[in-house]
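Severity: low
Component: inverse-folding endpoint
Summary: output formatting inconsistent between runs
Steps to reproduce: submit the following structure tokens with default settings.
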């Protein structure tokens, strides 16, 4: 049996542990060159350890792509870890070698020697969302990527999708629209009919939104009781039509009395200039607020003219 005090034996044991981890593990040196690339990283990326070892992650191998920007360039979190010694975490997209992308959560942890960072460990978790039938637990995915109540992508997934689309716009000017959806009156519903009735309304709204969009559109959760639609190649008038279709489907869900005391509001925005997710959402919020208070329309009404953009 190897001597447990043998540093070489300890190192081999550690490597075996890292190889057995289900998440992708990548170890970078101070020059951001790959020192270690485990089996899970091979599976996630489609790139083998021999072809990756010794290469710099700034070569675009760890780019988080189809986002217009490569994190391995000016905004590299690993480089920032080396600079200030702070951990970092983000949700983004990783490009597989065969061309498809997958949503991942990446944690960046600095390696220290005598208190100074000399390398970085990246832990890469596959967070592929499952929309509709399967829950996060059924799909074997982390719970924080799928909202358990509506079974739509969570706010974390929505933020990643929105960031991806904004980055694509800044690179290619590919048009898309964002629709924020808010159902007012849910607290009154819970007070008068119970929490179950409130949750049922949200679930039916989520289903209505999912059914109204096109196959390649994105529907996810946002802050509080809001939802967000990200609609590729979609103008503001087209987004308005989709919102109207969602309202009609929601009304026709035959939810019953609780629907009478709710108000459904939409806010729509499209990108412009060198946009940011924050600015894009802020414009959608401003548009939504224009339909607040007395201007907000009862969700029960099936008059599509109530949504005016």
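Observed output (run 2 of 3):
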């Amino acid at each position: 049996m190897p001597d447990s005090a043998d540093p070489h034996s300890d190192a081999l044991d550690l490597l075996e542990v890292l190889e057995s981890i289900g998440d992708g593990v990548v170890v970078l040196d101070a020059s951001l060159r790959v020192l270690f690339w485990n089996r899970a990283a091979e599976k996630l990326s489609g790139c083998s350890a021999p072809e990756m070892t010794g290469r710099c992650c700034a070569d675009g191998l760890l780019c988080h792509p189809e986002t217009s920007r490569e994190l391995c360039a000016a905004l590299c979190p690993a480089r920032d870890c080396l600079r200030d010694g702070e951990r970092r975490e983000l949700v983004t997209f990783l490009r597989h070698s065969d061309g498809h992308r997958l949503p991942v959560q990446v944690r960046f942890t600095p390696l220290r020697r005598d208190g100074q960072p000399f390398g970085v460990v990246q832990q890469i978790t596959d967070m592929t969302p499952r929309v509709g039938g399967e829950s996060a637990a059924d799909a074997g995915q982390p719970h924080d990527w799928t909202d358990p109540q509506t079974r739509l992508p969570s706010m974390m997934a929505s933020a990643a999708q929105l960031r991806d689309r904004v980055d694509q716009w800044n690179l290619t000017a590919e048009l898309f629209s964002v629709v924020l959806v808010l159902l007012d009156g849910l607290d009154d519903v819970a007070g008068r009919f119970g929490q179950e009735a409130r949750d049922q309304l949200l679930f039916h709204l989520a289903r209505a939104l999912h059914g109204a969009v096109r196959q390649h559109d994105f529907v996810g959760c946002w802050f509080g009781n809001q939802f967000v639609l990200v609609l590729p190649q979609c103008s503001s008038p087209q987004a308005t039509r989709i919102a109207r279709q969602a309202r009609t489907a929601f009304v026709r869900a035959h939810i019953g009395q609780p629907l009478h005391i709710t108000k459904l509001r939409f806010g729509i925005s499209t990108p412009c200039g060198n946009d940011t997710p924050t600015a894009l959402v802020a414009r959608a919020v401003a548009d939504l607020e224009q339909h607040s208070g007395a201007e907000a329309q009862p969700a029960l009404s099936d008059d599509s003219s109530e949504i005016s953009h």
